Amino acid sequence: MPRSGDTTPATPRRRRPRPLVRTVTSVAVVSAVVVGGAYAAGLGPFARGATGPEPAALAQARAFLADWAAGRLPNAAGRTTRPATAQEVLRNFTAGLDIRRPTLTVAAAPTQAADDTVDVPFTATMPIAGLGTWTYRSKLPLREQSDGSWKVDWSLSIVHPRLSGTKKFHLEREDTEATPDVTDRTGASLSAAKFPSLGTVLHQLDAGTDDDGGARGAIQLVDRATGKVERTEATFAKKPDRPARRPVRTTLDATWQAAAEKALASGAHGRNASLVALRIDNGEILAMANSPSSGFNRAVSGTYAPGSTWKIVTSSALLLKGAVAPSDVVDCPKYLTVGKEFHNVETSEHRNATFLKDFTESCNTAFISLRGKLGARELGDVAGKYFGVGQKWHVGIASYDGSVPAPRDETEQAASMIGQGRIQANPLIMASVTATAVSGSFHQPSITHGNQDTTTTTPLPRKVVTQLRTMLRTTVTDGTARVLAGLPGDIGAKTGTAEVSDDEPNNGWLAAHRGNVAVACVVEQGVTGGGSAGPVIRDLLNAVPTDPS
């Protein structure tokens, strides 16, 4: 199996420093906000008509900042020399500090550094949910690659000059008053004390669209090993004249939320994990839980390879065009080589298996063997058109809405068939994918009412829905999701094992549905989905045997 989203940077080609191309304007500082693609404009010292490679370097810098600002972290990381590391750091920094809608601005003319890099200074304006805005300066070093392209020469100090292997940032909040009046769908009060996983969520709901904040807190630089506070980078003080907030009623269900937190706390065994449960008929989120319960909201902002749970989408793409039927024989050998060797979990094999059997036993090699049935962009097109993945979702809190980039080669196309390569998702996305598969219609997930919906999707044909429901149900009764077989109800599910790197255990996934509820869970380093995420979802469904009305 391939490593997810990991590429080896090209060896930089050494060249003699040359003077930067300069404009004849009297303005010394060039500023351009790079949100939503503004970097495409010919702004700054390398406007249209400039010569040399530095205009390309500046364009790449602007593209990186635009992707980071818009939350397209896989795209931003792909513009660096260390994509996998960059994506993880950007995710942890932005989401871990509860940063919403950052604005990243080219702050001055690029300069040529002694090490042959081109340095592009930028200003970061980081709104911290419910507190205020943190503004600082940093710079992007751009290095020319052997093929003539430019990439951000990745290091931790890019994100913030004081971020390093020994120092990190910590968000400290001071509760100066009672938390805002946030309730569940029935009007029951929600609090971080009772539901720890909602701590960050409640602050985001309280923040609304006001970036000035109203509470107290600080961004602190701490020692990674000891946790000692080295310095305070920014402080936020409560505004005494801040108007009172209106009560916020969410779509959450206190019963489901309590069960989700309990199931994850007992089933994650100290590992990073998260889950989401939502209504199938309208996308309303019933519960979201994280382990650990404080800090980064992995459930809705995480960026993971979804592994074999993605075979729900792959199967949909194949069934939609009649490329395969559940009864067709699609052999499942132990190994299959497409640029590199792919294999099944524990190198299992199922000779002369039907496609239904391949799905229920999660056969990687069988799915990869069908890669020629889909065009290079077809999997991403199906994910967006029918499942809404990759479109902009307005959930009510900050969320990551998925990415399915076109594969760059045949090996990456093979990996994408099994939810690896550069495909990115999280439990919110996979719960929504499951809901769409079994109902036929995508509903934008939401945690608050009245959210804008800019998505455009097409319903799945009824025949495809019927086939998917049968495949998911058979995975519970006769396949890798047998961990749910003893529960009452017509439960369907798909397990997933997602490879992260050669040095770490696989992440375990499971997505399931019962009645009007879809749920998805990921357990980092869980090894297998059935063995790690399976017990969590089993305990959740067992604790709440009925659907919300």
What does this molecule look like?
This protein is of the alpha+beta class and 549 residues long. It folds into 2 domains: 32-145, Nuclear Transport Factor 2, Chain: A, CATH 3.10.450; 254-543, 3-Layer(aba) Sandwich (Beta-lactamase). 27% of the residues lie in helices and 19% in strands. The chain has helices at 54-70, 73-78, 83-96, 199-207, 254-267, 298-301, 311-320, 355-360, 364-369, 378-387, 410-416, 427-439, 462-478, 529-543; strands at 32-33, 103-106, 111-112, 118-128, 132-144, 150-152, 167-174, 182-183, 216-223, 229-236, 248-249, 273-279, 285-291, 335-337, 341-343, 492-498, 507-514, 517-523. Strands 1, 2, 3, 4, 5 and 6 form a 6-stranded antiparallel β-sheet that branches. A 5-stranded antiparallel β-sheet has the order 13-12-18-17-16, sandwiched between helices. Strands 7-9-10 form a 3-stranded antiparallel β-sheet, with no helix packed on it. Helix 5 (254-267) packs antiparallel against helix 14 and helix 7 (311-320) packs across helix 10. The protein is globular. The chain starts with 31 loop residues before the first strand and ends in a 6-residue tail after the last helix.
CATH homologous superfamily annotation of the largest domain:
DD-peptidase/beta-lactamase superfamily
How much helix, percentage-wise, in residues?
Answer: 25-40%
Q: Look at the structure and give the mean pLDDT.
A: 85
Tell me the number of structural domains.
Answer: 2
Q: Which CATH architecture of the largest domain?
A: 3-Layer(aba) Sandwich
Termini gap: 42 Å
Count every beta strand, where a strand is a DSSP E run of 2 or more residues. 18
Q: What amount of the residues lies in strands?
A: 15-25%
Question: Gyration radius, to the nearest Å?
Answer: 24 Å
CATH class of the largest domain: Alpha Beta
Structural class: alpha+beta
Number of DSSP helical runs? 14
State the CATH topology of the largest domain: Beta-lactamase
What coarse outline follows from CA principal-axis ratios?
globular
How would a crystallographer describe the biggest sheet? 6 strands, antiparallel
Flag low-confidence runs.
1-53, 208-213
